Amino acid sequence: MRSQSLTVVIMMLVLVALGSSDGIADDINSRIVVTGLVFDDGANRRLRNPSSLHYDANAGEVVIADAGNSRILIYDRDLIPRYSFDHFVPDRSTGQLVKGQPKAVAVNSHGEIIISDNLVNYLEVLDFRGRPIEKIFLDAALGDTSLTIRPECFTIDEQDNLYVVTTGDLVTVLVLGPDYQLKRSFGQKGTGPTDFNTVISICHRDGWIYLADVYATPAVKVFDTAGAYIKGFGGHQVDRADVSLPSGIAVMVDGDGQKYVWIVDGLRQVIKVLDSEGAFQAFVGGFGFGLGEFRYPTAIAFSGNVFYVLEKVGGRIQSFRID
Q1: Against a cut of 0.70, is the pTM above it?
Q2: What pLDDT digit, counting tens, does each position of 177-209 carry?
Q3: Partners of 284 in beta bridges
Q4: Which candidate, 24, 29, 28, places its Cα nearest to that of 279?
């Protein structure tokens, strides 16, 4: 796919508003380079209500679920458009295929694209060109088709295990193996520190699963891949380490092996940077339409020292490099 007029790729240095002189703020010298800015799919279709972003490390590609256009968009690491396709789902009344609203996306090591869609209650597996391979019904995976459950968000690890947060009759994390068969589940809806309320973002890093919950405290909960609770941190008040709407989460590891949790706060229009124990380190962005600013950011993904931020209302993707 050839890039058209609405795609802008830029290189410039910007000073990002950072709220601390400690930790990662010193590591990056309070500077981030904006390396790319994209508004469209390369064919003059502007992004409309994009909801999910995934970096495919094997292919070096950025994959976007563009719900408003019913499309999956694929860019290279420099945000040059490569390919896109419509996502179709069966109409509930007629069974005829209609354009869907893809909500979340991930890619496994074989290049298979896993998608959830607002209009259906299953996960769909597609090939790299968007051709259907199979559907994963979570109630059937659990062996109880009387349940009404939907995938809310998911992440995938290096072994192609899929961690799916469910909503509906069962609020939990289902762990599906590389064959998409159920391996285990962990977590439940409740009010305890290890319980879930409304988890809308999840990521995996180095054997740990990070979940961000809109209402529960702690706001961020960390489990190992077997489902054992490790720790939690953050709330939903006005403290610098708190988040109002944690719509995206990612973990960065610096050159010294230190982990930092980056949380997209879709209501405050910033990305909060916390250390591995939840202590506030920095914030990135702020409301606006300029470079390095956000209009309702909704997702973040890392590739080494490069990260990508998707804006739901702003309808664009920005890429950044930490120098």
Answers
A1: yes
A2: 999 999 999 999 999 999 999 999 999 999 999
A3: 271
A4: 24
Single-letter amino acid, residue 236: H
Local structure of residue 112 (DSSP, 8 states): P
79 backbone dihedrals φ, ψ, rounded to 5°: 65, 30
What would the pLDDT profile of 123-170 be if each residue is shown by its tens digit?
999 999 999 999 999 999 999 999 999 999 999 999 999 999 999 999
- Please give the structure tokens belonging to residue 271: 């990305």
What the block records as the tokens of 318 is 């920005």
E-only strand ranges, 49-160: 50-56, 61-66, 71-76, 81-86, 88-90, 97-99, 102-107, 113-117, 122-126, 132-137, 149-156
Cα–Cα separations (whole angstroms), residue 63 to 34, 136, 154: 19, 20, 14
Domains and CATH numbers, the chain: 7-322 (2.120.10.30)
> Residue 10 above 50 pLDDT?
no
Nearest by Cα to 156 from 197, 205, 198, 87: 205
Task: Kindly give, in sequence order, each residue whose CB lies less than 8 Å from that of residue 144, ignoring residues fewer than 6 positions away.
Answer: none
Grouping H, G, I as helix, E, B as strand and the rest as coil, residue 72 is strand
Strands 122-126, 7-8: pairing kind: unpaired
Instruction: Report pLDDT for 27.
Output: 54
Specify the length of the chain in residues: 323
The dihedral over CA atoms of 40, 122, 130, 127, expressed in degrees to the nearest 10, equals 130
User: Per DSSP, what are the bridge partners of residue 53?
Assistant: 64
Reading the block at residue 224, the tokens are 């190992």
